[in-house]
């Protein structure tokens, strides 16, 4: 995305290095097949370290490894959350500043004070949502939530048909939106299957990167960057590369024999949204082929005491469960799920190296459910979703609960949350504005090095993270242009 915006200036030469391939194939293009990509060759294959609050269960944290990154492997929901999320980011990153960048990034098919048209990211709402999705929306209204036309508009509190990064029947990734239209541009050199394994310095200035072929072939070298290096490797690989290059917590680097260039809290404050996967209902009728992404209904509401939505659920056309929940319940089709996530979790974690090999596993401790208030809020989310199962609207399509298979008591709810919580795939914050980068996204203590990805989020917005990453990158493009 940034590579496209920077190369809009013909006097700037941009080289984009991507570890994954240029194209992902039919499973990337088909919105209904996104879950197949998890754990496959286009996934970095990271995992969270098992931890007590989630009952020591293994939890994978997928990241896209293909041109377009995770926007080419994600579930495609396009959602900004609440303006106050960004106001908390402070000067230069507050919602009023970011709104023009959200609007500039999108082609939402309409232009109003909130939404943009003609931008690179095509976003569309499903033309024909599944009847189950429509029943979920009616159920939410029956339970007291307002029905809203656009969660990216004036308010996000309520039930709505969400928008997705699709064009017709096909996924529309950041590579489709930003890079494909400028393929062949003379000043933009896109090199795929190229793994960046280190940063090169001259004194305090980052002057290039070290790379090697991503598929293990011999070769590799150093690429010099006259005007600077921008890291956009995502919230797990960016902190890895910084730490391998001597930028990180000094004691941790020294423990791995890495000379310290800048003692910074890289890898700290790792944030993610815990997601209860999911509350599954037995459907009265076969559900037919997956429509669109399998989503089609989104609910945003408040846990007790929250002044703005911190709970967010989406419908899944089929079962949605951790292996541990699936092992204890009958999820034979036809079933559908509603999965509530906590969008302002208090728990924060960390990512650390396990060795100096750039392909070594990372030690990722998200601390999901580490704060008791997060558990309480998710229990409230489960309770609300189970109550939806008792509405007339949902009763019209659901024959009864499948997992959990009965209305849970408070004590059972907590046990279920611990068994069913996984990741919403929204890892961020590991090289945050403030402690690690300045307000222009420059890494403290070194010259010529910026970070432009989800790592820089000072806190996690209460939404899925693709749209915010792209808005941040849009603003970064202006900052870099202004810096010359
Ligand atoms: C399964 C899944 C579902 C999701 N669903 C949604 C959703 O529905 N809606 C939403 O808004 N968000 C969703 N997200 C999250 C969202 O897609 C990401 O937060 C966002 O794309 C992150 O952007 P990023 O630029 O920080 O990193 P990424 O998009 O992960 O990009 C990093 C890029 O850098 C490359 N890279 C990494 N290390 C190196 C290296 N050393 N050398 C060369 N290249 C490297 C990677 O291959 C990748 O292409 C989902 C994510 C996943 C994985």
From TrEMBL:
What positions does the entry give for FAD binding? 66, 196
Concerning PROSITE patterns, the annotation shows:
GMC_OXRED_2
- Give the source's domain of life in one word: Bacteria
Names of the cofactor(s) = FAD
Q: Does the keyword Flavoprotein apply?
A: yes
Q: Which residues form the Glucose-methanol-choline oxidoreductase N-terminal domain?
A: 234-248
- Which Pfam families does this UniProt record tie to the protein? GMC_oxred_C, GMC_oxred_N
What are the protein's UniProt keywords?
A: FAD, Flavoprotein
Q: Which GO terms describe its molecular function?
A: flavin adenine dinucleotide binding; oxidoreductase activity, acting on CH-OH group of donors
Q: Does the keyword Transport apply?
A: no
Regarding protein family, the annotation reads: Belongs to the GMC oxidoreductase family.
This chain's protein is named Choline dehydrogenase
Native organism: Pseudonocardia oroxyli
What taxonomic lineage is listed for the species of origin? Bacteria, Bacillati, Actinomycetota, Actinomycetes, Pseudonocardiales
């Amino acid at each position: 995305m940034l590579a496209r915006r920077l190369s809009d200036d013909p006097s700037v030469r941009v080289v984009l290095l991507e570890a994954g391939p240029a194209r992902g194939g039919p499973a990337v293009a088909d919105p209904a097949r996104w879950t197949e990509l998890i754990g496959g060759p286009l996934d970095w294959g990271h995992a969270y370290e098992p931890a007590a609050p989630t009952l020591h269960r293994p939890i994978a944290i997928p990241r896209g490894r293909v041109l377009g990154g995770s926007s080419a492997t994600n579930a495609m929901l396009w959602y900004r959350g609440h303006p106050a999320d960004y106001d908390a980011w402070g000067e230069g990153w507050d919602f009023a500043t970011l709104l023009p960048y959200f609007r500039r990034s999108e082609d939402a098919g309409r232009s109003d004070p909130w939404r943009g048209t003609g931008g690179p990211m095509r976003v569309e709402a499903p033309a024909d949502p599944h009847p189950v999705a429509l029943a979920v929306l009616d159920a939410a209204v029956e339970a007291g939530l307002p029905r809203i036309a656009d969660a990216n508009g004036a308010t996000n509190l309520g039930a709505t048909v969400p928008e997705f990064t699709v064009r017709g029947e096909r996924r529309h990734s950041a590579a489709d939106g930003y890079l494909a239209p400028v393929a062949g541009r003379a000043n933009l050199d896109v090199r795929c299957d190229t793994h960046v394994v280190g940063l090169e310095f001259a004194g305090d200035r980052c002057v290039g990167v070290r790379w090697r072929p991503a598929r293990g072939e011999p070769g590799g070298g150093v690429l010099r960057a006259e005007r600077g290096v921008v890291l956009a490797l995502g919230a797990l690989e960016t902190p890895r590369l910084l730490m391998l290059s001597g930028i990180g917590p000094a004691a941790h680097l020294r423990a791995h024999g890495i000379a310290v260039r800048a003692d910074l809290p890289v890898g700290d404050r790792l944030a993610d949204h815990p997601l209860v996967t999911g509350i599954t209902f037995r459907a009265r009728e076969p559900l037919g082929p997956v429509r669109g992404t399998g989503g089609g209904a989104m609910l945003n509401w408040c846990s007790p005491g929250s002044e703005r939505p911190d709970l967010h659920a989406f419908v899944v056309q089929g079962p949605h469960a951790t292996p541990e929940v699936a092992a204890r319940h009958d999820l034979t089709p036809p079933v559908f799920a509603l999965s509530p996530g906590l969008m302002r979790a208090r728990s924060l974690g960390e990512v650390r190296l396990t060795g100096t090999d750039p392909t070594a596993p990372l030690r990722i401790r998200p601390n999901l459910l580490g704060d008791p208030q997060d558990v309480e809020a998710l229990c409230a989310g489960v309770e609300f979703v189970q109550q939806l199962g008792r509405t007339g609207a949902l009763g019209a399509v659901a024959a009864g609960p499948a997992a959990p298979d009965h209305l849970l008591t408070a004590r059972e709810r907590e046990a279920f949350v611990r068994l069913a919580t996984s990741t919403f795939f929204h890892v961020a914050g590991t090289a945050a504005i403030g402690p690690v980068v300045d307000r222009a996204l420059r890494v403290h203590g070194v010259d010529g090095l910026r970070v432009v990805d989800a790592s820089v989020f000072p806190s996690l917005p209460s939404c899925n993270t693709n749209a915010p990453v792209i808005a941040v990158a849009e603003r970064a493009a202006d900052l870099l242009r202004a810096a010359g």
